[in-house]
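Protein Record: Sequence and Backbone Structure Tokens
======================================================

Structure line: whole-number tokens from a learned vocabulary of local backbone shapes, matched to residues.

Purpose: to set a sequence beside its fold so the mapping can be learned.

___
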Amino acid sequence: MKKYTLLLLMSVALTAYGQKDYNASLFGIMSNGTTLNTTSIQKAIDYISESGGGTLHFYVGRYLTGTVFLKSNVTVNLHEGAILLGSTNPYDYREIEKVRMPALVAACEADNIAIVGKGVIDGQGRELCYNFLDQQQKGVMPDGTRYDRPGYRPQGVYLRECRNVTVKGIIIKSAAGWTFEPDQCENMLVDSVTVLGLDFWNNDGIDIVDCKNFKLLNSFIDAADDAICFKSHDGNAASENIEIRNCVARSSASAIKFGTVSAGGYKNIRIINNRVYNTHRSAITIAIPDGGYADGILVDSLYAYNTANAIYLRIGARNTNRPPGTLKNVTIQNMYCEIPAGKADPGYPYEGPVEDNPRNISPASIVGLEGGHNIENITIRNVHLVYPGGGNAHYARRGLSAAELDAIPEMPQSYPEFSQFRELPAWGFWVRHARNITFENVTLTAAGRDYRPAIVLQEADGVTLKNVTFQEPGGRKKQVHTYKTKNVVQK
């Protein structure tokens, strides 16, 4: 009797648990790759959410769909071999009304949601973009193209104002727009995902927009545009309490970037033990061009190979209706970066553009704005940057005279990129409009002789150089040049 009772209780428990697990086929969802499943997938998600929550399981197959919206208390489990396949018909996509943004997988104000497993979300973005362009050129859709890109392109995964979110193990690839965008989400974990955004121009990898309590761990991101990108679209919001750890990034723009939009701010961000390779622009960029702020950022153990620039910190003023923002309290430590003599991303489907020439190899830069808008309290510690050297004054030249240094433009309203000033007067680091900058245990290596000094400090106040080493062939020269700079301490 006791044995029977125990078996009965176990059966009831298993039945109760089973009620929270649903096979996609239960809802008539087809895995043949040709049947459009949008309605049936949405019905399944709605049903599970309304029934108290549970997991929707997709097993081996290709599940064709347009936009589907995740709802609270629903987990989507894409098992190995399962592919959620985006329709290539532009009219199969719906926008999130709150932000007027279409996506393949979307959610708005949903709590306790997850996308897990070893399966794939494939947006088929290149073909979808071509179909958008076709409809626009025929006059059926409004022509919203900018820079040869359709202006209205679905994201891969877009999550807006969601809480308690987990995305783990899956592959997200081939979106028409940005590949993966969490926007104003809280308490979110992204772990062991692969993000591939290589199918069209402006394919960012993951864009973390005004999120709080967010972790990106153990992931691989390869993108035609910025790979791991922080943004702040809302002047009343900010990206706060974020950790990026143990990730690998490759980009035909910047690998890890703050900006470009900086309406609100970035606070308490930790970027630890990450790798960058074959990247067209910077390994780490922190740009504040639209007002807003960056305060309390730690970059620790960043290793970058074949990357065109190591570090770019910049305050701009594109938004003339707001005062320039602030950038302060940043530590970059335990970093190694190798900068190539040539282009870092040849052969990728959408290479970064060749621009801002003529110029020799650009240095890492810390660049505020005139008028007292200094970048403040920056520590560069235990950093080794390896340059090709070979800067040639007969190709492009920026001398050290007062007239030549004063002639470097401020460019407050320009798009912030490390190459924007064209030829710069240093090969290792250029610092302008900055205060309280510390270089400690820094090695700057040039493989070939460069006509420029390693470091130029221009219109800066309070710079400490402690155990800074220069390695450049071809004899000795003065490697640190100061101009309109005070309170420099060399140890």
The chain has a mean pLDDT of 94. The first helix runs from residue 2 to 18.
